[in-house]
Request: fold
Amino acid sequence: MQRKSGSGKPHRGAGAPSQRQLRAGELVRRALADIVARGTIRDPDLIDRSFTVTEVRMSPDLRHATCFVAPLGHGDAAALAAALTRVRAYLRGQLSKEVTFKFMPDLAFEPDTSFDNAEAIDRLLHRPEVARDLSKSDSED
Reply:
């Protein structure tokens, strides 16, 4: 059950994005993916570089978008985010042709480390000590 705040609107958890933020973020993510796929970005660090926009998180007022990017294959995600930050004015202009918002969001790019985190967890789970402990608990059941 949601509590009512003083404004009469339901109170959300502190970090939970609204349905509107989620929809707007997905719209921006798809549009950025289309812009990147066209290959019109002229930055030397981005030419012939394959990467993906994994997630876009919008601020509650939809004026700021944090875009998480990851290189396809192996590469430096931080350098990729820095290169995209350099061309964000161009990307914002292209984005304005793709989506219609009252205010075009300011773009910020961050490296997506979720794939690295998943890989580290996978390596931990496949260590011999962990496999041995897991096999003991399976045999006890």
